[in-house]
Amino acid sequence: MALPDDFLPLTDIPEPLVAPLRHVHERLAQSLEQADNLAGMSARESPLEDWLGLSESRRKQMARVLAISDFVAETLVRYPEWLLHLDASGELDAAPDEQTLRAWLDERLEDAEDEAALHAAIRRFRRARMTGIVWRDLTRPPGVDMWATAAQVSRLAETCLEGALAWLERYLEPRWGNPAVRQDGSEQRLVVLGMGKLGAGELNLSSDIDLIFAFPEKGDTEGGRKSLEHQEYFTKLGQKLISALDAVTADGFAFRVDMRLRPLGDGGPLVGNFSSLAAYYQDQGREWERYAMLKARPVAGDVEAGGELLASLRPFVYRKYLDFGAIESLRELKGMINREVRRRGMQGNIKLGPGGIREVEFVVQAFQLIRGGRDTELQVTSLKTALRRLPELGLLPQEVVDELEPDYVLLRDLEHALQALEDRQTQSLPDDETDRERVALALDMQDWPALMARLDEVRGRVRRHFDAVVADPEDELEDDEEADTRNAEAQGVSLESWRALWRGEFDETEGRELFQSADFADPAGSLRRLNALGQSRQVQSMQRIGYERLEALMPMLLDAVAGSEAPDIALERVLPLIESVLRRTAYLALLRENPDALGHLMTLCSASPWIAEQIARYPILLDELLTPDTLYTPADKSRLSDELRQALGRIPEDDEEAQLETLRVFKHAQVLHVAASDIAGTRHLMKVSDYLTYIAEVILEAVLAMAWKHLTRKHGFPQTREGGRAGNDPEFLVVGYGKLGGIELGYGSDLDLVFIHDGASQGSTDGERPLDNSVFFTRLGQRIIHLLTAVTPAGTLYEVDMRLRPSGNSGLLVSTLSAFADYQRREAWTWEHQALVRARVVAGYARLAERFTEIRGEILGAKRDLDALRDEVVKMRQKMRDHLASKQEGETFDLKHDPGGMVDIEFLCQYAVLSMANDTPELLEWSDNMRILETLEATERLPAEECQRLRDAYLALRSAAHRASLTRDPSRGRDADFQAHRQAVIDAWQRLLSPDEGKSG
Q1: pLDDT value for 616
Q2: Residue 107 scores a pLDDT above 70
C-alpha cells in the first residue's frame, strides 16, 4: 500500500506551484512508507491507512496548505501521525480553548525529568499547535480571520510561558526553595509582562515575544538546600524560562524572547522588584517606554500581582491632561525607523516601510498616548479595540476607521502569509517567483501583480491617514505654497520671519517694522510684550524639551495673532496664557500640533478677555479648542447629563478628589462652549442662560448623588417620614432661587440655594455609625456646599449663597418640607415671597419636588391686601436703590439697579404674580421673568403692547450685561442707547406700583 499520485487534488493550485507540490507529495509518500514499515516491525498502527481515509475536502485543504507552507510540509514529513491527531481532535477546523491547551501541555510536561526534556516537550507542543494555526489561517474555516489567528498565537505563547514557568518552579524548589511570602501573606511568583503584540493578544505567526520580568518584594527563598535573595532567585528563574523557549535545540525553538524593553535594556538587571520599577519609570522613564508600556499585560506567573504593578505605573503611561508632546516622540521614533529603512533598503518591508503595519499602530497609539489619561476607554492593549473606540470618542471619523481596519488586516494577513512559508520572522516581500505565487495564493489573489496593485492602494491610504495624524503641522504649513502665498499677500510676514524675531535675530527697529507690516496698531508695544516674555525668568529657566516646544510654537502663534481681526489685543491676551503653561509644556505641544486650535484661540481671546483669563487660569480648557463642532455648539441638558455620567463613570467612586476635578473641568469646559457660541452669535440670549442653567442643574444632581452616597456609606440610610428606610434616591431637594431659579444664570453667577428634606423628624440612620435624622440631613447639606465650593487645581464649581433659606443665616441649613411651608405661611416677609416667585426645584427627589411645587403655588396664590403688598414691594425696591443704584446721573447707567433696569422688571413680575396669581393660577407655572411676562399677556392681565416692551427691554438689558461679563467691562449702558427701553419700564412701574406718585420712578 502506498500514497497514490492523485492523493492531493491539484485543481485549485496555480501552475507554478504544481511541481513544488508534487515534490512535497513524494517526500510525504516516502515518510509514510517508512512509518508503515516501522509500524509493521513494532506492531503499531500505520498512519498511512488513516491518511488514505481522509475526506476529499480535507485533502483539498492539504493541497492548498502544502503548496503554500514549507513549515507545515516539513512538519508532516517529520511527524506524519500529527496530521491524524490534529484531524481527530478537530484542531484543523477550530482552535482549542485555553483550558484544553494548558491541559495538553501539562500532560506532556509530566514526563519531563530534566530541562532537556522540558525543552523538547515545549518545542514539539508549540510546533504541533502552530501547524494547526497555520492550517486554519490558510484555509479559513468559519470564525477564523486574522484577528483570530493572532489571538491563537498569543494564547499559545502564554500557555508555553506559564507551563514552562510552573515546571521550572517545581523543578528548582528542592534546590532553592520558594520565595518568602509578601507582607500581606500572599505567595510570591515571577511576574511575566507581555509587551508589544503579545501584550495586545495580537501576535503574528512567527513573532518574537517581548517580555519584562518583575517580582513584588525583596526577601530570601525558604525551604531549599540553598537560600537565595529574591533578586538572584528570580534572575536565575528568568534566565531558565528564556532558555526554555528561546534556546535552539535539535527540535528548534519555541519562541524567540526579547528582553530589551526592560528598564535600561540589555544593560539593566533582568528582573526588578515592584518598588524599583516604579522608581525607575517615575524618575527615568523615557517617552518610548511610555509607548512600549501601552501594550503591557501580565501573561504568566502571578497575573494578579502583575495587574497591581501595571496599575501603579498607569500615571507614567497615561497623563491626566491631553499630552500632545507624545506625538513628537512618536514622530522621532518613526524618523529613526525611516532612516533605518532607507539605510538598509527596506522600502518593501510591509511592517516598517511607508504605509506599513507600524504606521497604523502609530496612528492608534498616538491617540492612546495623547488622550488615554482622559478617555480611559483607550487604556486597552488591543489595537483592534482601541481603533474601534476612536469614532465613539470623536477622535477619528468612522469612515477613516472603516478604511484603516481592513487595510491593517490585509497587511497582517500578508505578514502571516510571508511567515507561514518557513515559520520565519519576516515582513519583507519575497524575490523568489515561486514564493510570490505562494503568497498570492494565500491571500486568494489572482497573481503577484494583482496582489502588488492591491498592496500599493492599501499602503497609500495608510500613509495618508498616518500623515494626517502624525505629520508635523509646521511642515504642512510650509509645504502648502498656496497658503504661504495667501499669507504673504495678507500679512507680508512668513513663519521664518516670526521665528527669527522670537529668537532675537532682529534688532528693535527691524522688530517694530515686522509688527507694522503685519498690521499691528502698536508695533512698539507688541514688540515690548513679546520681548518681556522671551527674556522672562520663567522662559530662561525652562528645561530643554520645554523650551524646544515653546520655540516651535511661537512662530505659529505669532502668525495666528497677525491673522486675527485685532492683533494687538489678541497678543496682549494670549501671552499671559503662554506664560501660564510654561511649566506644563504639553499645552504648548497641543497648540503647536493643532494650528486650527490656535485660530479658535485667537477668535475667542480677541472677543473676550474673560475667556482669555479663564483659559489662562485653567489651561485644560485648551482641549476644547480641538473640537470646533462642540466648541460652538453647547450640549442640551440630556447630552450634558450623559457626558458627565460618562466622565464620572471613568473614576472610582471612592476617589473624591478625582471626581471633584472632573466636575470642575466639565463645568469650565461647558461654560466655555456657551461663551464661544455666544461670541459666534449662534445662540440667542435666552438660550445662553438656558445652557448655563442646564450646566448648573446637571452638576447639582451629580453633587447631590455624590454627597448622598458618601454619607449613606458611612452612616446608613435615614428614616422616611412614614417610618421606613430611605432608598438610593435621596429624599432631599435642592431648590434654586434668584438667577438659577429664574433660568437666567450668567457667566460667573453664584447659586442661591435652599435645602429641604422629608425624612422623619425623629429617628436615626441604619448604619454601623448611626446619626440622628436631622444631623444626617444637615451634614448632607454641608457636604453639598463643600463639594460645590472646595478649591481644586481646576478652581471651584460655584460660589453658594444660602441666605434665602427660612430665617436666613440664623436659620437651619436644611429644613423639613413642613417646616419650610409653615415658615412661608406664618413668618416670611413679603420680599421672601418675592424671592419664592423665582424658586424652583433644580435637583432631588421627584415626588418631593411635586409637593414643594404645590406648597409654592399655595403660598404665591394666596389672596393679599394689594395696597399693603404694593407698599412692601416699593419699599424694598427703594431700599435696594439706596444701596446699589448710581449716586448721580450721567451718560451711563447701571443696567441692573438704576431706574428702568433689570431689577425693576424683576420686581414688576414678582408683584404681578403675588397680586394676580390668586385669580390667575397660570402665573404659578413659571419662575423666569420672560415667561411670566408672556403669561401676563396670554391671560390679558397686562396689555400685550406693554408686555412686549418689557420683554424687549429685559432682553436688551440682559444682553448688554452678558456682553459686559465677556468683555470684562462694567455692567453699565449708555443712556442714549437704552432710553426707550428704560422709559417703557418706568411707565409700567408707575402704572402698576406708583399710581399716585406722578413720575417718581
Answers
A1: 87
A2: yes
3-state class (DSSP) for residue 578: helix
* DSSP 8-state secondary structure symbol assigned to residue 203: -
Domain contains 31: no
Span 625-679, pLDDT tens digits:
877 778 888 888 999 999 999 888 888 888 888 888 889 989 999 999 988 888 8
Asked whether the beta carbons of 436 and 448 are under 8 A apart, the reply is yes
Which of 516, 536, 535 is closest to 525 using CA atoms? 516
Query: Residue 759 pairs with which residues in a beta bridge?
Result: 720
Residues 6+ apart with CB under 8 A from 575: 529, 530, 533
Nearest to 814 by CA among 770, 773, 859: 773
- Dist. CA 269–CA 233, nearest whole Å: 13
Cβ atoms of 342 and 422 within 8 Å: the answer is no
- Name the domain count of the chain: 5
CA distance readout (Å), 454 to 108, 355, 407, 448, 461: 44, 13, 10, 10, 11
Q: Does one domain contain both 922 and 947?
A: yes
Number of helices (H) and strands (E), helices first, in the chain? Answer: 44, 14
- Per-residue confidence (pLDDT) for residue 133, from 0 to 100: 97
211 within a domain of the structure (yes/no): yes
CATH number, position 430: 1.20.120.330
Reduce the DSSP state of residue 844 to 3 states and report it.
strand
Domain identity same for 418 and 525: no
Which DSSP letter does residue 228 get?
-
pTM for this one? 0.74
Tell me the C-alpha distance between 889 and 891, whole Å: 7
CA distance 317 to 387: 18
At 680 the three-state DSSP class reads helix
The residue range of the domain holding 143 is 89-317
Question: Do the domain assignments include residue 79?
Answer: no
Contact (CB, 8 A) for 792 and 660: yes
Q: CA–CA distance from 877 to each of 831, 884, 958 (Å)?
A: 10, 10, 19
- What is the residue-wise DSSP string for 431-449? -SHHHHHHHHHHTT-SSHH
Contacts of 375 (CB under 8 A, 6+ apart): 393, 395
Nearest to 912 by CA among 884, 956, 946, 883: 946
Maximum mean pLDDT: which of 462-471, 607-616, 680-689, 845-854: 845-854
| Phi and psi at residue 90, to the nearest 5° | 80, 10
Could you give the CA distance from residue 964 to residue 969 in angstroms, rounded to a whole number? Answer: 5
Asked whether 451 and 440 are in contact (CB, 8 A), the reply is: yes
* Nearest C-alpha neighbor of 558 from the set 587, 592, 532: 592
> C-alpha angle with apex 661: 655 to 662, nearest 5 degrees?
90
CA-angle at 449, arms to 443 and 451, nearest 5° = 25
Q: Any idea how long the chain is?
A: 1001
By the 8 A CB rule, do 404 and 465 touch? yes
Q: What is the pLDDT of residues 536-584, one digit of tens each?
A: 999 998 888 889 889 989 999 999 999 888 899 999 999 999 998 888 8
Q: How far apart are CA 360 and CA 459, in angstroms?
A: 10
Q: Are the CB atoms for 658 and 597 separated by under 8 Å?
A: no
Euclidean distance between CA atoms 978 and 619, whole angstroms: 38
- End-to-end CA gap in the chain: 120
Q: What are phi and psi of 732, to 5 degrees?
A: -155, 145
Residue 80 placed within a domain: no
Averaged pLDDT for residues 209-222:
96
* Residue 772, helix vs strand vs coil: strand
- The reply to whether 304 and 426 lie within a common domain is no
- Which of 433, 452, 471 terminates a domain? The answer is 471
Write down the pLDDT at residue 998.
Answer: 39
CB atoms closer than 10 angstroms to residue 982: 23
> Scanning the structure block, which residue is given the C-alpha cell 507529495?
25
> Are 450 and 484 part of one and the same domain?
no
In angstroms, rounded to a whole number, what is the distance separating the alpha carbons of residues 676 and 365? Answer: 31
